[in-house]
Amino acid sequence: MNRSGFNGASFKNIMDNEQLNNGNIIENSEQGGLSRRGFLHGLGGAGAFLGMAGMAGNVSAAPKDADGKVIPGFEKTKDDPNAARGWRSVSDRKIKVGIAGYGLCKFGGAFFYQNHPNVDVVAATDLDSGRCAALAKAVGAKKTYPSCEEMIKDKSIEAIYIATDAPSHARLAIMALNHGKHVVSAVPAVFGFEAEDEAEKLFDAVKKSGMKYMMNETSMFHADLYSKRMQYQAGALGKILYSEGEYWHDFGPKGLPGYNPKNGKIDLNGWRKALPPMWYPTHATAYYVGVTGGRFSEVSGLGTTGTYAEYNKGDNQHKNPFGTEIAMFKTSEGGISRMGGSWDMKDAHGEKGRVYGEKPHDNKISGKRPPLPPSVKGGGHGGSHGQLTNNFIESILLDKKPIVDIGDALNMTLGGVIAHKSAMKGGEWMKIPQYDL
Question: Is the pTM value of this prediction over 0.70?
Answer without folding.
Answer: yes
